[in-house]
Amino acid sequence: MAFVFMCCMRIGFWVVLSFWQRYNAFNNNSSARVLGRHLRPILYIPMNKGMHCVFAGSRAFFLNCIGLVVRPYETMRGISSHGSYWELPMIITVLSIYFGIATLVKTAAFRPFFLTKQFVSLAVVVVTSAVFSSYCLYLAGRILKGVGKYKRFLLLWSYTLIPTVSWFLATSLLYVLLPPPRTTRPEGIIASIVFLVFSSVILFWKMVLVFLSLRFGLRLTFLRILGAIFFSAPLLAAYGYWTYKIGVFRVPFL
Questions:
Q1: What DSSP line would sit under 200-243, residue for residue?
Q2: Residue 27: which domain range?
Q3: Is 109 exposed, middle or buried (0-12, 13-18, 19+ CB in 10 A)?
Q4: Distance (Å) of CA 10 to CA 15, 45, 225
Q5: Helix count (H) and strand count (E) of the chain?
Q6: CA 131 centroid distance within chain
Q7: pLDDT of residue 205
Q8: 172 & 112 share domain
Q9: Looking at the structure, do residues 143 and 219 belong to the same domain, yes or no?
Q10: In 3-state terms, what secondary structure has residue 46?
Q11: Could you tell me which residues come within 8 angstroms of residue 77 by beta carbon, excluding any fewer than 6 positions away?
Q12: pLDDT tens-digit map of 227-242
């Protein structure tokens, strides 16, 4: 237990220190490098290459999530240049957490068979939606003379799912805390207004990340980005209607 505790403490120090170093390096502060040189022997954890890639991908994912909020342009450009596919497992983990919460919310009875069936159906539809929507936009961008590989664009597109899963997770929690129907009392009206404002902010954030994924993933200009979205919209709308008809999502998970 003591060994596990020490490892957890070292990992925590490593993550916090790495974020602090990156922030200070951005502001041309040399004190972060001095502190890192003194603490590096303390924070050293022997691990194989696979474990190192997992920890590095997890650290990059959390830093990128913070950057997508405060500096989306620089962060998406950095993901395009230096992003690693080891960051995808963390995105899948976040999606799996949402699948679990949404499954418990949507399933009235606690029955393992129905819970597993709902979880699997959500996972299959979300993965299909991500691949289908990203490939539609990728093909439209390539038709409009975009340059880039699909794997790199898929990594960028995966980060655009962070606003989506944030909104769906918030709606699931709100369904538990404030179940419908909403009342016309002041509390209900205020809750509805707050939710509309939150949804508008998330939608704007999503649009910004989609724009940046096309900009850095395919090197498209502003007009060609609009063209790629315009050409892909009918297919995405048809797919969203299909997910609505089968009863998985009332709002497309794109």
A1: HHHHHHHHHHHHHHHHHHH---HHHHHHHHHHHHHHHHHHHHHH
A2: 2-81
A3: exposed
A4: 9, 8, 44
A5: 10, 0
A6: 14
A7: 92
A8: yes
A9: yes
A10: coil
A11: 212, 216
A12: 999 999 999 888 888 8
The structure tokens listed for 120 are 């699997």
Alpha-carbon distance 216 to 232, whole Å? Answer: 18
Q: Which residue has the tokens 């993933």?
A: 217
Which residue in 82, 244, 84 sits closest to 158, CA to CA?
84
**Which conformational region is residue 148 in: left (phi greater than 0), alpha (psi within -120 to 50 degrees), or beta?**
left
Which of 245, 57, 223, 243 lies closest to 133, judged by CA? 243
More confident position, 93 or 185: 93
Span 109-125, pLDDT tens digits: 555 545 667 777 778 88
**Residue 120 pLDDT:** 77
Can you give the pTM of this predicted structure?
Answer: 0.73
The three-state secondary structure class of 197 is helix
Q: Identity (one letter) of the amino acid at 106?
A: K
Q: Are 101 and 165 in contact (CB under 8 A)?
A: no
Number of domains forming the structure of the chain: 2
